[in-house]
Amino acid sequence: MPARAAVMVAPEQGLQVWELRAPDLEPGSLLLETVASEVCGTDVHLWHGRLSGVPYPIIPGHVSVGRVLETRSVDRDALGQSLAPGDLVTFYDVHEVCHRCWFCLVARQPNRCPQRKVYGITYSAKDGLLGGWSERIYLKPGVKVVKIPPPLDAEDVIGGGCGLFTGFAAVERAGVRLGDTVVVQGAGPVGLSAAAFASLSGAEKVIVIGAPQARLELARALGADLSLLLDESSPRDRKAEVLDVTEGRGADVVIEAAGNPEAVAEGFELLRDGGIYVIAGHYTDVGSVTVNFHHAVNRKHADVRGQWGTEFHHLYKALRLLAKYKERLPFRRIIGARYPLERAQDALQDVERLRVTKAVIAPRS
Amino acid sequence: MPARAAVMVAPEQGLQVWELRAPDLEPGSLLLETVASEVCGTDVHLWHGRLSGVPYPIIPGHVSVGRVLETRSVDRDALGQSLAPGDLVTFYDVHEVCHRCWFCLVARQPNRCPQRKVYGITYSAKDGLLGGWSERIYLKPGVKVVKIPPPLDAEDVIGGGCGLFTGFAAVERAGVRLGDTVVVQGAGPVGLSAAAFASLSGAEKVIVIGAPQARLELARALGADLSLLLDESSPRDRKAEVLDVTEGRGADVVIEAAGNPEAVAEGFELLRDGGIYVIAGHYTDVGSVTVNFHHAVNRKHADVRGQWGTEFHHLYKALRLLAKYKERLPFRRIIGARYPLERAQDALQDVERLRVTKAVIAPRS
Amino acid sequence: MPARAAVMVAPEQGLQVWELRAPDLEPGSLLLETVASEVCGTDVHLWHGRLSGVPYPIIPGHVSVGRVLETRSVDRDALGQSLAPGDLVTFYDVHEVCHRCWFCLVARQPNRCPQRKVYGITYSAKDGLLGGWSERIYLKPGVKVVKIPPPLDAEDVIGGGCGLFTGFAAVERAGVRLGDTVVVQGAGPVGLSAAAFASLSGAEKVIVIGAPQARLELARALGADLSLLLDESSPRDRKAEVLDVTEGRGADVVIEAAGNPEAVAEGFELLRDGGIYVIAGHYTDVGSVTVNFHHAVNRKHADVRGQWGTEFHHLYKALRLLAKYKERLPFRRIIGARYPLERAQDALQDVERLRVTKAVIAPRS
Amino acid sequence: MPARAAVMVAPEQGLQVWELRAPDLEPGSLLLETVASEVCGTDVHLWHGRLSGVPYPIIPGHVSVGRVLETRSVDRDALGQSLAPGDLVTFYDVHEVCHRCWFCLVARQPNRCPQRKVYGITYSAKDGLLGGWSERIYLKPGVKVVKIPPPLDAEDVIGGGCGLFTGFAAVERAGVRLGDTVVVQGAGPVGLSAAAFASLSGAEKVIVIGAPQARLELARALGADLSLLLDESSPRDRKAEVLDVTEGRGADVVIEAAGNPEAVAEGFELLRDGGIYVIAGHYTDVGSVTVNFHHAVNRKHADVRGQWGTEFHHLYKALRLLAKYKERLPFRRIIGARYPLERAQDALQDVERLRVTKAVIAPRS
After folding, report:
1. Residues on chain B bordering chain D, Cβ-to-Cβ distance under 8 angstroms
2. Where are the domains of chain A?
3. Alpha-carbon distance B96 to nearest alpha carbon in chain C (angstroms)
4. Hey, what CATH class is D162-306 in?
5. ipTM
6. How far is B271 from chain C (nearest CA, A)?
7. Total-model pTM
8. How do residues D120-153 score in pLDDT, each as one tens digit?
9. What is the topology classification, in CATH, of domain B163-306?
10. Top-level CATH class of D3-151+326-361?
């Protein structure tokens, strides 16, 4: 049975709905019926052609939730839970690190493995149903599939999306400790998740800087103690506010999830001496910024840490905590709108124009 | 008996030799006869008035070696070794952290204590013999004095000078591990020391970038495996060289000890993905640099760490290792020239013009 | 005006109420009117003479809350907040680390400083009002006094007592991470606090093993997800339970707060391979235990960490979080009974016989 | 062409030399001609049947050096170096971690992966040439083969053997820092390697405790500063000696490589407060020991760390450093004797009776 999919045929060209042949299942593979797939900022970058080496035409959609339709010699999920047709699952979009290169073997840093493949980004539509904006998704042998733990449903998980575990990774990278004051720059999916997990880590104060107001309300619902609206404040105002709640010192931790070079200059101003600054929002080239390393880093005795991508355990732990704290972490509320495949182009535009925090492709809707 | 001292009366004015009254010893204090005191890059900055809050007139000279002349209710050094007149000692120039502020008590980061006082920098000549360019030095109660362990003599210690433990601190901050490739940017006293201690930490390769040639020879004598002469190579050449010896990846650790903003831009180019970059050479404001945080930090999953000043244990451990590895760590060879008090102005100029790697004031010479 | 104090004149002799002379305030000192002082397990050990070097007669009571009666040249608390007569305060019972020994200076580990003095333990009643079981407490110059932050009152703080920050220290030492499963052995004040702060750190599951039932109810009120009653289960049962909730692996972190050698043998059984085991409850010699280091440590690739005492920042951060999470952390409920000075002996007995979780001396009651 | 191999047919039965069929090479596999294979303490344990789940008959020999005879679709080693028949190689004996279990994926701790397979231990002779005491070794697809870097030859590498990277792993686990005093308990291959790498890490003092005298001489040749002969000293003497060279404090780091429970009790006595104790020598069950956790761990604020097995990067980094420091690290001198296949039984006995530090099977000799 063929599957319909929204295909990005080339940068800045209108998305098309294609009918694609159903795959033959290799041993170790699964076929999912897509329930929901997220539209993330990366998809906007993909549409503008800002990532290199993308094999257009592609089926976008890296984080998705689906129901198992068929399996071939697979009866366990990535962690050994029994798995059968009908189960609601998600999967780790990063596939096929090589376990053989210097980064995998010596540095133990698979997020820089050159063989890394990502669903919805590094596969061509010609290679098969390897993206989530499709009625069905083919999970190649070795893709890490995870049964969604109760009481979570598809909306909880896709509401978090890839931001859920990217934010988790940023908080883990920062090593947020009990009693810390944490500033999060940005209130998109990554920033909201970082705020939520910083709060869950026992931070004394979590401060989110972002826009628009609706996102800041989400931030507070997810655990932020204070939010500062970008449009209505200057960097000077925001610095005054952060110093005010930290007895003049600045934040113990700042997490950049803004994707804006000016945010980095501001972030250093908000950081206390000896603080930790995680750069998590610069996953594409958004330009440069001028920094005085005497003031920002050396004299401040600062720790600045890039967080590139994620690893499987970020997804796994974030999901487990989401299952435990479903009420306290209402990520499902981030979803702003649901789109059928035919309206994938509208979804991209709404995300780019910040009309919705999180757009979701629901192929069956 | 009065003591003669070289006094920096005000920025950019000729140094003067003053005769200063001998102090009355408070309980817990010592009086030293100065054997040697270093002329460091900071002294050049002091002369140009580049540090704020300096109470001119001052007696420069923060790291010194002296012989104990007199003690008052003191018979042990900072670590409990017996101490008596005639002993050869050095002392930790950073005095009087408060043990009471948020940085001392909560962050456990005394290098950012606002009460920190430094010999030769934050005391006025009117306060007494509190700098090393003087025939005698008064060690106030609580100054951490350390007997120089055998087989070291004054030249070994002053040859290392404050660079000895600043370089040690940079290597400790980097957490250099067995088998690392380490690039050190800068071949002044801090860079040379960083190269020496990186080598001593079991780095597989230590590469020093600097000038002039004589300093690179010192670098190799102290343990560098490779040195790259700044004047005869472009950043592109140097990057090619570092990639060449790291199978195309870049260095595990880069230590900036250059005091030059362009070095920072270059440093990111030399760092491997997932590497550690310590900024140790920007202890004064030498200007800004433009950085692309996508390439340099986020995508690279980099760790960037400022190292501000030192703590006592850096001095202590560096000295112990110097005593063990006197032959392998010929820091005494860094000393380029010795000056009597009357020629302190010449010493400053020779350091500024890079005529000598390390100049030493020897009041009795 | 003299002050009445409950004095432990010698081990295993009846406590006496003495009238002691009011002190003359040295510069930098304060006098408090005691509101409440805790009776902790250490006081029971003191009464039995189990600690060495105690200068009987002593006024017990190391953690206390008081109201400032009088100050001498002090107008700020340890963190710089304004301080005046009438303010409600607590203070850090560990006083006078030397800042000069190898442990203070080189290892940066003041909890092993040989000069450490502790209120209520290492001072004689002849030295003054240096323990909390007294109408008034004399805070010597340098004692770290902290204003109790709103909305906390005396009961919140003394309910936590020294267990509050000892438990905090154990959780910090364990480095509890988001999503961890944490087993706490013991449901006394330290165990309850460890459970509370492990939960606050974002642990996925906190399991408390202890007795009696009333303490386990407190544990759940403070954040434990599961509790196992010692009296009604065997070590085999408890291991089965822990394996059951960890998919057969064991806990990521185990914190020993039981003060019982058999607990250590059991703890290793409950720990997963690669897990972290903090030994925090063996602060007196309670005997030995037989361990197979192949199974328990080497093959398990375990991390075993002793936590000795606390540092000031543990108190400070624990108090700040208590102020933020007053509702979520109802430590005041731990208080089982309040005793006037005359009944201090009864308080000791009730603690020893586990009749109350926390007994409090309230000199004015 | 068949290959002769020394086969351990069952525990405590005489080894036999079998002729085994040459394998057909699967894609991704290699065939080596064995140059040398080590006889390690584990082989003695295997012969006594002390490890569970061993599929006798087996071909022992986990660490080996060979020359590439034949390859099938392989032209690179594990790190991407070109590889061809005739090259001298070693390989990582631990094969086939699953990359799929909780330990591989979530804990990132592949040394506890239940799927781990080890050459010479977990494969039956019926499965093929999967051990080193054989004329030829079959490297299954995925086995990590490494070209021996110049100027090393087979004797350098096999002299280090598996102890080379086990000792490296222990030093890495200890996090030995510049200036540390390190005690190594045991002077077998693991202890000698730990001493060598501790010295290479910039320890100020490395002290080896072991026997017989010949091994202590090797220890000093490899970098130990001091050695204490087990037979001629009591635990009390050794403690006195260690306290004497550490100003009464004990060692910063102790590494257990003795495989003896009493060594653990002694190790705690030799460790300073706040020190780090790595248990690396208890890789089989050698019995239990009684420990007082108040004195040994809690009051001492100790860190006790098990090191189970190794990871590939330990082998890789140890080899690179061995190549750099061939002169300083004369591991080849550890080899005591070489045995042809027919004398494998003698080799086992000589190792068990400590007649040689390292025995080597040389099938062609």
Report:
1. 79-80, 168, 171-172, 177-179, 197, 200-202, 204, 247, 317-318, 320-321, 324
2. 3-151+326-361, 162-306
3. 11
4. alpha beta
5. 0.95
6. 29
7. 0.96
8. 999 999 999 999 999 999 999 999 999 999 999 9
9. Rossmann fold (3.40.50)
10. alpha beta
